[in-house]
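Hi support team,

I'm filing this because I wasn't sure whether my run with NAI finished correctly. The job status page said complete, but I'd like someone to confirm that the output block is well-formed before I use it downstream. Pasting the exact inputs I used:
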Amino acid sequence: MPDNRVALVTGAGAGIGRASALALAADGARVVVSDIASGNGEETASMIREAGGDARFVHADVTRESDVVALVATAIDTYGGLDCAVNNAGIEGTLAPVGNYSLADWQQVIDINLTGVFLCLREEIAVMLSRGSGSIVNIASVYGLRGSSRSPAYTASKHAVVGLTKSAAGAYATEGIRVNAICPGFIRTAMVERVLELSPDAEESIVARHPIGRLGTPEEVAAAVVWLCSDESGFVTGHTLAVDGGFLI
Ligand code: NAI
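And here is everything the job wrote out:
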């Protein structure tokens, strides 16, 4: 049964974003589901409604300032506010060491993974400030805390998301707005399936890097999202929470 909280999730048409939208709805929030993939995003919103929740899909490319402004405005127009936001949209980008990385490939990853989070944060914070409360979760990665030699742009973008999270958390802690980051290990989603398609033999070694002995599920990340969005985590801000099966140990 929906309560009065309003949540917004970017990249919610698949993977971690979809699982987060479903979990926030199951926890009672009304959810603005956003993605560039309209069919998938509409499907997530339908799944929420079929389960008895309240959701609306809004098409938005997080790299486009006008899309992000319209996305947050639609949340306010539809549901009257914004209590939590999950800045999740991201891509893995080309796999190559930095010496072989094209500027175009670099720019695409930085635009989506970093500038997209910046644009969303800015609009979300503006509306949360007017109410004096809010919780924002940025989806970074274990590669926001350590290096990946074949993903220079991804690694740089996710380190930057961790830094941006701390900057925003410090700036708005006294205004009732909390900003945290989640750093997932390898989670079985379309993103990881694409990586495994390029290197089919890599699965065993990837699994072996997680002491728990398996890849994570989108639902395990979503559970952390729900907690960080809730008042249960009311004294937690500027934190980077690894959900990684021990990858960073
Ligand atoms: P996914 O590829 O399954 O889903 C990503 C979603 O983002 C897709 O629905 C896609 O359409 C959307 N998207 C892509 N570009 C967009 C844009 N410009 N504007 C709006 N939406 C856009 O990916 P997954 O695995 O669910 O990843 C979600 C987040 O979690 C990403 O930020 C990723 O970097 C991060 N992450 C994922 C890990 C994993 O192992 N799957 C590990 C660590 C972090």
